[in-house]
Amino acid sequence: MSSTKKIAFFEKYLTLWVALCIIGGVIIGLLVGDAIEVMSSWEVARVNIPVAILIWLMIYPMMLQVDFSSVKKVGQKPKGVILTLVVNWLIKPFTMAFFAWVFFSKLYGAFISPELAGEYIAGAIILGAAPCTAMVFVWSYLTDGDPNYTLVQVSVNDLIILVAFVPIVGLLLGITNITIPYDTLVASVVIFVVVPLVAGVITQRILIKSRGQEWFKNVFLHRLRPVSIIALLITLLLLFAFQGQNIINNPLIILLAAVPLVIQTYFIFFVAWYGGKKLKLPHAVCSPAAMIGASNFFELAVAVAIALFGLHSPAALVTVVGVLVEVPVMLSLVWFANRNKY
Question: What is the pLDDT of residues 76-128, one digit of tens each?
Fold first, then answer.
């Protein structure tokens, strides 16, 4: 029964770890400000080297789970994949941009200048254009989702990221009058998606051939999972150290940024959930499809926001707030999915 299932320790308390990183990062930033400024200047082509290494360590373990052979099965039961593709690529980025525009440009106009509002909106757009990869396996497991079909859904979305992420982000940032350095945007996708994806596929094939499928899934991936979480937490610690003074000057900004992100998460989940029921998808397919739409590939979003706007930017801060709110919101949606199992 799904009620006996438990989320892993690191994932279960991810919100707590992020909150501690906020506090710890701000304190570090205030105590060793000069040293942090020096570290923030270690860049190549506008990409901070320490943060890039950490983000690569976050994303690489996820790409090890992509199964190209599963993509061949899409034609057998296409409706679930079609649903997740429509929600993730034709609805979600645009509703995220809309909610961000309403809140940051209109409702928060008295607190935030138009220039800052533009960057906050940009961070939300980047976050909304990156559908979830790794964490969705946790949400699928907790709601009795079909693990094999979830793998198909995630793998197809990962491949779509390669071709759709840059045009959609470019389009929406252009609509919001943000100048887009396309070379940096494309380079970010190559560095943080293409390279770890290729490395993951090569590693996967070598290890499965030498040690077997069971060892790869149950031993190697299990041992590697904490690496991704630890790299994420160190990245957040650095980000908040760089953002420390901004947060001290405007302590409400995290709460303000969280509101449109939470509304977007619930909105997209229910669009996908009731869309799946309308399509008569079984619960084991509908639930993961809704979870993929609701959650985000925040590792990629953080990386791209940093590359485009810098470590100190409001855009990077918004993507980090997305990490902060995701776990408690998604756990509430897990409860809803289990309560309304059909």
Answer: 678 888 999 999 999 999 999 999 999 999 999 888 888 889 999 999 999 99
Q: What is the DSSP string of 19-33?
A: HHHHHHHHHHHHHSH
Q: Burial code of 239-261, b = ≥16 C-beta within 10 A, e = fewer?
A: bbbbbbebbeeeeebbebbbbbb
Higher-confidence position of 245 and 163: 163
Would 69 be classed as within a structural domain? yes
Determine the Cα–Cα distance for residues 232 and 226; give it in Å rounded to an integer: 10
Q: Is 1 within a domain?
A: no
Nearest one of 161, 132, 165 to 268, comparing CA atoms: 132
Q: Is 2 a member of any domain? A: no
Q: What are phi and psi of 131, to 5 degrees?
A: -65, 155
User: 25-28 — which CB contacts under 8 Å span 24+ positions?
Assistant: 25/236, 25/237, 25/238, 25/239, 25/240, 25/241, 25/242, 25/243, 25/244, 26/240, 26/241, 26/243, 26/244, 26/247, 26/248, 27/244, 28/237, 28/240, 28/241, 28/244
Token look-up 């009058």 returns 177
Two structure tokens written together for 215: 């060892």
* Closest alpha carbon to 295 in 140, 189, 169: 140
φ, ψ for residue 197 (rounded to 5)? Answer: -65, -45
Within 13 Å, how many C-alpha atoms sit on residue 33's CB side?
5
DSSP annotation of 134 reads S
Max CA-CA distance within the chain? 61
The answer, yes or no, to whether residue 287 has pLDDT greater than 90, is yes
DSSP states of 193-207 as a string?
Answer: IIHHHHHHHHHHHHH
> Phi and psi (nearest 5°) for 277?
-65, -35
Task: Quickly state the pLDDT bin for 269 (edges 50, 70, 90).
Answer: very high
134: nearest Cα among 4, 296, 294: 296
* Residue 18 included in any domain: yes
Q: Are residues 11 and 138 in contact, defined by beta-carbon separation less than 8 angstroms?
A: yes
Identify the CATH number of the domain in which residue 188 sits: 1.20.1530.20
> Residue 334 is part of which domain span?
7-339
